[in-house]
Amino acid sequence: MNKLYEKYIKTDSLPTLFCPGCGNGIIQFAAINAIDKLGIKDDIACVSGIGCSSWIPCYYKLDVMHTMHGRALAFAEGLKLARPDKKILVFTGDGDCLAIGGNHLMHAAARNIDLTVVMANNYIYGMTGGQKSPSTPKGSVTKTSPFGSIDEPIDGCRLVMALGASYVARWTTAHPVQLAGSIAEGIEHRGFSFIEVQTQCPVQAGKGVYGEKDPAAIMQKYKERTYLYREGSEPVEGKIPVGVFRHDKNALEYIERVEAKLKEQGIERG
């Protein structure tokens, strides 16, 4: 077994509940690569909500809060305010984060609070049977859009950038090295870091969303349908940008503003 896996994963809890071909294992391993690279195993805590991707940290030998549907960011903000010394890594999904948790996402991004959010985007509600999610592409056939989705999908990266998130990136499961690098960069960044990961769900999304049930073929589509974003580059029609979209090192972080306000009142945090 991989030594890094043995170091960070509760092997007595294996196998995971992820379906064969699911991309969550790739995200799981990318995150521990980042944590190990930074050497912060004892200084990090993970928070997740409800959904397939929210199980990712539950197999870690780390401090983990597995919370309620859509409330991962609310719990994470509370934890960060109570323990500002801790690095907080949040795992969530497109449904958990953009639908029921959308209000918490908006406020966390606007506050620029020092959290690192990894949003696994498989375009579907996977754990509850394959309903349409806020990010489901138009035309996709799901349990709740049997004739093809007519809704405009929500772009999480554009949403948080509009609200003030200071680190924003997007990768896919076909970019595991770049993903691990962005997670590490996001953890080190002082401010709200949002990293979207487009990931395959061959069981619930499959042909209805991707037009393909083979996970390797879906990952190949990710390579073909994406292009590397660089500042000032022109959009490529019909393709999705991946890369780091924003890294503002000068944006004032929320805890810093809280501490400054307390200091104005002559209050020392104990």
What do you see in this structure?
The protein has about 270 residues and is α/β, with parallel strands linked by helices. Helix content is about 35%, strand content about 20%. The strands form two sheets. An eight-stranded mixed β-sheet has the order 2-1-3-4-8-7-10-9, sandwiched between helices. A two-stranded antiparallel sheet has the order 5-6. Helix 2 crosses helix 7, helix 4 packs across helix 5 (about 100-110) and helix 5 (about 100-110) crosses helix 6.
Q: Are there runs of 5+ residues with pLDDT below 50, and where? A: none
Beta-strand portion reads 15-25%
SSE string, helices as H and strands as E: HHEEHEHHEEEHEHEHHEEH
Helix content: 25-40%
What general outline do the C-alpha atoms trace? globular
**Main sheet, how many strands, which sense, barrel?**
8 strands, mixed
Oligomer: single chain
- Count of strand segments: 10
**What average pLDDT do the residues reach?**
95
What Rg, in angstroms, do the CA atoms define?
A: 18 Å
Give me the number of helical elements.
10
Structural class: alpha/beta
